[in-house]
Amino acid sequence: MIIDVTARDRARVRDYYDRFADGEHDRLSVDIAGRVSVEVHRRFLARFVTHGQRVLEIGAGPGRFTTELADHGCSVVVTDISPVQLELNRAHLAGTRSESAVQRRELLDVCDTSRYADGEFDVVLAFGGPLSYAFEDTEAALRGLLRITRPGGTVVASVMSMLGTWRHQLPGVVQLAAAVGEDVNDAVLRTGDLRHVPGADHVCQMFRARDIDRLAVAAGGRLLAMSASNWASLGNDDVLGPVEADPDRWSRFLRHEVDACSEPGAADGGTHILFALTHER
Ligand SMILES: C[S@@+](CC[C@H](N)C(=O)[O-])C[C@H]1O[C@@H](n2cnc3c(N)ncnc32)[C@H](O)[C@@H]1O
């Protein structure tokens, strides 16, 4: 019964991304926090991919990180649960050098990777939250991602952060609690599950860093690294505008920001939590 419910929830998410369409492409480019988030994700990914690797990209969306994987010389199986996002991925990469890195594109729910062989990929990448849409099946999904990753290979992912999102979105959270009731707000803060909000357009599961620690072990993995996205750059676009405009100051800021994000004490502080895991020895 739970499986039916969560499958329906994932269908709801697929419909949301079908409707969201190219909004997803623009989401991280419109403000400084978004651009920093892309940079934090790019640099995190670069630690775990090397030339010639075969990568499964899950929830690829319009291809922000497909292009990145192509730049690293990887060959990529591009997947998404949303047919619209998969088509946008094709459209955005068409005519670019990155397209030659794409082996094929296919529809895939992160919760069902049974079509792939054990250890088929060097790296499995799920940036931007596919695992935030697995709900009750998250642990099984993560175990599935490890199964199809070769021994010594890496699963690299990011999920929505409960505490960082609460802090960053506080005005909206307070407003929502007033509208739907403090009991609903309590339930969301306790569980990270936005399905508690009646009539929510976008539902997802948000995590605490300690949830990721627990999930990694439960799925048979070992955490290699964790990072927040972002740390100092949330809600400070006015201050950071002049810094971004100066290449030297900006590169220094990004270095400090990426370093801060990877401090253990920062893991819960951003809107997303990035992590990399491998098989337990
Ligand atoms: C926020 S976008 C991230 C896109 C891209 N990975 C990035 O980081 O820029 C989330 C993507 O995950 C996809 N997605 C959502 N639920 C999924 C699921 N259960 N399985 C696979 N993909 C899913 C959505 O369709 C969407 O394209």
Question: If you had to describe this structure to a student in words, what would you say it looks like?
Answer:
Residues 55-153 form the Methyltransferase domain. GO terms for molecular function: methyltransferase activity. Pfam families: Methyltransf_25. InterPro entries: Methyltransf_25 (IPR041698), SAM-dependent_MTases_sf (IPR029063). The protein is 46% helix and 18% strand. It has 281 residues and is α/β, with parallel strands linked by helices. The chain has one domain (2-160, 202-279): Vaccinia Virus protein VP39 (Rossmann fold, 3-Layer(aba) Sandwich). Strand 2 (75-80), helix 5 (83-93) and strand 3 form a beta-alpha-beta unit. The radius of gyration is 18 Å and the shape is globular. The mean pLDDT is 94. S-adenosylmethionine is lined by residues 10, 13, 17, 24, 58-61, 64-65, 80-82, 85, 108-110, 127-130, 133.
